[in-house]
Amino acid sequence: MRRAAALVRSVCAATGMSKQSCDAGQRAGVSGFVRDSTATLDDILPAGPPKHQSRQVSASPRDDKLADVEVEVTPRAPGRLGSYTPATMMMWQERIAREAPGSHADQPASADGEPVLEPRAPRKVVVRYPVSTVHDLHELYQNPWGYVRIGRLLEDFDSVAGTVAFLHSHENAHHRPVLVTASVDRITAHGELCLEKDFRLEGRTIWTGRSSMDILIQCIADGQAQPVLEAVFTFVGRDPATGKAAPLPAVKPESALDAEWFEKRQKVNDHQKALRKARQQAGTASTNEPLDPRAAALLAEGAALQDLPALGADDAVVASGTELTSVLLMQPQERNMAGKVFGGHLMGRAYELGFAAALVFSGSKPSLVEVGAVTFDRPVEVGDLIKFTATVLHTRRVGDASRVFVEVEAHRMNPREVVSEVTNRFRFEYEVEGGVKRVLPATEEQARKLMRYL
């Protein structure tokens, strides 16, 4: 009981809740923990206004320049809750404040019991980073070369996308599906973010299906029109009682740009459905297909280099020789609002290991070009061990620079349950200065992975 009360107090202190709200939260939180040992942050955080100042807009007709939530990131005190970034804490505060009882209007249900969900205008969230003037924030997001630490920013991408998804789906008090990050489409980079300029993250709903939605996240530096980073997150709705797919409100495009994005994502969704259908029809046959002739030739060369290293090509290495591994114990401070390990945390750790693998391989600082599609196949629990393995799979010369393609595989290990399974695969493309060695596959599995880059 005392431990639960202490946890509630720490949450209140970290989120800036008033003493009255905190006292109420302690009463609710303690009783909740006694009833249910799996209580989450949603169960113990009291509803109340967030500590930071945010601009919330509800206008009709909507002005495309206005945001539903707009915040400016401020550094947190050392005692802030968990290992989350200030931006992630602010996003979760927004969600907590909007979950207050009575803050949502009831929605009618259809004859079959499903809620009647009216189409909604795209939701928008803006998070500003005054890194050029706020020293502590500058230090928090700085990497060793004086640029923005992308691994940390990827955590914020996930929390901003989750807040947009929350705003779009949680306007109904009786229909609040559990939102799960299903995948991340390609994250493309156009240059590097320097800390001499402030920047912002903008998130927006761009597409919806029956039980899924796509959220566009763009990172834009002040004074620039083109985003420096751009990603699309896909969320799915789950019924909190059954775990089955839950319907989500449709998005109603309001501008020509909204319509363009919706059409683009609809084509992507249709293509993905066709691929899934083709795989189901093919069954296991696809794994027995012959290798691409180029991959087969590289596999033969790689096998010779691995078995006869003194006689093989001196301008190449085998992929297994580029591996880097890290094993992390997932801590309570890394959970999300559903009590699972925060997906943004996993993305950030995978990115930084992939970066390290490219750095060790090339000997020069890598710059991000693209993050390939990421899927979240299985949830990660607090207490799990996650083994990240980064492998350089391919290189390519581009002018005076080289591209380095790294795959990071995340294995969830639970010694108590004797379980080891893949939860995620991350693919990163980096650019480095000068030339680098070729990377050759030494196994058929590596050769099949290589085929996507040829």
What does this structure look like?
Helix content is 31%, strand content 25%. It has 454 residues and is of the alpha+beta class. The protein folds into three domains: 1-48; 49-56 and 64-99 and 115-276, Thiol Ester Dehydrase, Chain A; 290-453, Roll (Thiol Ester Dehydrase, Chain A). The strands form two sheets. Strands 1, 2, 3, 4, 5, 6, 7, 9, 10, 11, 12, 13 and 14 form a 13-stranded mixed beta sheet that branches. The protein has a two-stranded parallel sheet with strand order 8-15. Helix 1 (2-15) crosses helix 2, helix 4 (86-98) packs parallel to helix 6 (150-169) and helix 6 runs antiparallel to helix 9. The termini are far apart.
Q: Give the CATH level 1 class of the largest domain.
A: Alpha Beta
CATH architecture of the largest domain: Roll
**CATH-defined superfamily of the largest domain:** Hotdog Thioesterase
The radius of gyration over CA amounts to: 23 Å
Overall number of structural domains = 3
Name the helix and strand elements from N-terminus to C-terminus, one letter apiece.
Answer: HHHEHEHHEEEEEHHEEHEEEEEEH
Binned, the helix content reads 25-40%
Structural class: alpha+beta
Sheet with the most strands, sense and barrel status: 13 strands, mixed
**CATH fold descriptor of the largest domain:** Thiol Ester Dehydrase, Chain A
Number of helices: 10
Helices, strands, pairings?
Layout: H1 2-15, H2 19-35, H3 41-44, E1 69-72, H4 86-98, E2 124-129, H5 135-140, H6 150-169, E3 178-184, E4 187-189, E5 199-208, E6 212-221, E7 229-238, H7 256-282, H8 293-307, E8 316-318, E9 324-329, H9 343-362, E10 367-371, E11 374-375, E12 385-398, E13 401-414, E14 419-433, E15 438-440, H10 444-450
Parallel strand pairs: 1-2, 8-15
Antiparallel strand pairs: 2-5, 3-7, 3-11, 4-7, 4-10, 5-6, 6-7, 9-12, 10-14, 12-13, 13-14
Helix pairs in contact: 1-2, 4-6, 6-9, 8-10
